Amino acid sequence: MAAAGGGGAGIALHDFSGRLGEQRVHFHAMRLRDSLFLWVGAAPALASLAVAMCSPRDSVPVAASLLGDPSDTASACLARRLASKTKKQIFVSYNLQNTDSSFTLLIENRIKEEMMAFPEKF
Hints:
Layout: E1 12-20, E2 23-31, E3 35-41, E4 49-55, E5 58-67, H1 74-86, E6 89-95, H2 101-117
Parallel strand pairs: 3-6
Antiparallel strand pairs: 1-2, 2-3, 4-5, 4-6
């Protein structure tokens, strides 16, 4: 597991990885002032991008697909769950073929584990 940090202008970078099931998954988090960009993948790609944020009018965060196939909801679903947890605007790029709900739960739990270990990076 590798970690990197940066602090200029309120931006923090954090890279980590893990073996989830049979697959090695890499994560790149970029914390901005009031938002977080999170990239998840096994190889360099930006095939999808979604954003989610909390709304004062609804208990469930709103989410939108910004890039990629709108029928692929993995990025938006993960962004929505993380926005609910952090109360921040969350951008997620989920670039893995496996979108099975049990696998995405492993992904989410790995991210939450890292958030607990390094809260200043998120």
